[in-house]
Amino acid sequence: MQRQRFFIDADHDQWVLHSEGSKRPLRSFKTKREAVAYGRAMARKRGHSQLVVKSRNHVIQTEWTYGQDPERFPG
Mean pLDDT in runs of 10 for the chain (75 residues)? Predict the structure, then answer.
């Protein structure tokens, strides 16, 4: 089963939540804190998902993974 990925990214003066592969945002927020709280709750509810949070300059700051992690391979 493939993990559903969600991203929080800055867009001008807002923070937007969008899913991987979608060009249209799911929701927008005035503050990053609001976006992260909503995104974490939504990803946790979905179960097998991941939330990736980016900074204003589009660098990944943190990520949360929910549900069962895939097998890890040495390498």
Answer: 88 94 92 96 92 94 84 58
CA pair distance 35, 19, nearest whole angstrom: 13
Q: What is the model's pLDDT at position 1? A: 62
**DSSP notation for the chain:** -PPEEEEEEEETTEEEEEETT-SS-SEEESSHHHHHHHHHHHHHHHSSEEEEEE-TTS-EEEEEEESPPPPP---
pLDDT of residue 17: 96
